[in-house]
């Protein structure tokens, strides 16, 4: 059913049935014209009967019409229906009525026209005029074959399976390549749109569709122009955010200095207000730091020139965040893998991403709960890291959206609990740059789960 509902399947089946129908129509038209001439010997069914008729007509010239009458009486009924004989007075020898469609042919037979070919009821028919002794004569009409429609039906019935098999194979092969040729560009466009939707704005479809029709070439050019403009616009947007963030650091630094000087003056009445200003400045500093952590280009080609062991990294992170977790009344439950998992990395980028995920898990877990960390081996030289908190989770419809920059769920809008929506975005881009995949899910009887799959170095096995 999936094949039939696809564009390729519909094009293939439609073209295939059309081609088979055209083969049968070609056979019909060819034989229709071939059987149009009543004088064609190939159309006659009774060659032996024709010779027997002519032999008996020669004999009847010497012995009279009675000989032909006796011979005609001895024929089987199906053959008698194909032969009509009239004496000189127009009386049929077997007392049968003459078909009206046969009258013109009989009328055309005379001493000067002793043999005539015609179609009687669309059947090839031959008429003979045979002079007899004593001035008598005999007119004989012989229906030599069947109508062209009957012959075509018989031809198709007798050769139906060979025609069907040959037509099916030949047309099926031709239609397969035709449908493949027509649907392949659409498949390429579908792949391109998915890659662009996944964030690969540098992908271009024009080289793939090179050599196809003008319309598809123009569509590919328009698609590439759209993605190029989108890529440039997003790059400009990221650069603008980073430039603004850099510019904000200078007044923020001056604000921190002024805040420190104000605190040194020991004005007790202003301490609550200074604390609020300090918290706002720290919050702004965190935002700027996270924005500057976002890469300007999603396709970061810098090499992964360092190596980290996943079990040791998670062990170190849980020990480092132990005080923060205890302050929130949360514990870590770490289940490490049974062997080393070596992953290629760059600097502390992977460490920062995992730390961000662990901090989120601590933030959203209620007091007295635990954050579960699991490291397991996966096929194809990969490992999986799962972090599951005990919070309220995320709606299923928002599991993909939480990785977008500045996105926060309805339950995390406040500044105290929701942050500003950059942690998971940074983590996702970091994991992608490491050749991995990060996903979010809602585990049973728990809060939010984050799953990270990373490729391992060969030395890990």
Automatic annotation (TrEMBL):
<dbReference type="InterPro" id="IPR003660">
    <property type="entry name" value="HAMP_dom"/>
</dbReference>
<keyword id="KW-0808">Transferase</keyword>
<feature type="domain" description="HAMP">
    <location>
        <begin position="180"/>
        <end position="235"/>
    </location>
</feature>
<keyword id="KW-0597">Phosphoprotein</keyword>
<dbReference type="InterPro" id="IPR036097">
    <property type="entry name" value="HisK_dim/P_sf"/>
</dbReference>
<keyword id="KW-0472">Membrane</keyword>
<protein>
    <recommendedName>
        <fullName>histidine kinase</fullName>
        <ecNumber>2.7.13.3</ecNumber>
    </recommendedName>
</protein>
<dbReference type="Pfam" id="PF02518">
    <property type="entry name" value="HATPase_c"/>
</dbReference>
<keyword id="KW-0547">Nucleotide-binding</keyword>
<feature type="transmembrane region" description="Helical">
    <location>
        <begin position="160"/>
        <end position="179"/>
    </location>
</feature>
<dbReference type="InterPro" id="IPR005467">
    <property type="entry name" value="His_kinase_dom"/>
</dbReference>
<keyword id="KW-0812">Transmembrane</keyword>
<feature type="transmembrane region" description="Helical">
    <location>
        <begin position="7"/>
        <end position="29"/>
    </location>
</feature>
<dbReference type="Pfam" id="PF18225">
    <property type="entry name" value="AbfS_sensor"/>
</dbReference>
<keyword id="KW-0418">Kinase</keyword>
<dbReference type="GO" id="GO:0005524">
    <property type="term" value="F:ATP binding"/>
</dbReference>
<dbReference type="InterPro" id="IPR041124">
    <property type="entry name" value="AbfS_sensor"/>
</dbReference>
<feature type="domain" description="Histidine kinase">
    <location>
        <begin position="243"/>
        <end position="458"/>
    </location>
</feature>
<dbReference type="InterPro" id="IPR050428">
    <property type="entry name" value="TCS_sensor_his_kinase"/>
</dbReference>
<keyword id="KW-0902">Two-component regulatory system</keyword>
<dbReference type="InterPro" id="IPR003594">
    <property type="entry name" value="HATPase_dom"/>
</dbReference>
<dbReference type="Pfam" id="PF00672">
    <property type="entry name" value="HAMP"/>
</dbReference>
<dbReference type="InterPro" id="IPR004358">
    <property type="entry name" value="Sig_transdc_His_kin-like_C"/>
</dbReference>
<keyword id="KW-1133">Transmembrane helix</keyword>
<dbReference type="Pfam" id="PF00512">
    <property type="entry name" value="HisKA"/>
</dbReference>
<dbReference type="InterPro" id="IPR003661">
    <property type="entry name" value="HisK_dim/P_dom"/>
</dbReference>
<dbReference type="InterPro" id="IPR036890">
    <property type="entry name" value="HATPase_C_sf"/>
</dbReference>
<keyword id="KW-0067">ATP-binding</keyword>
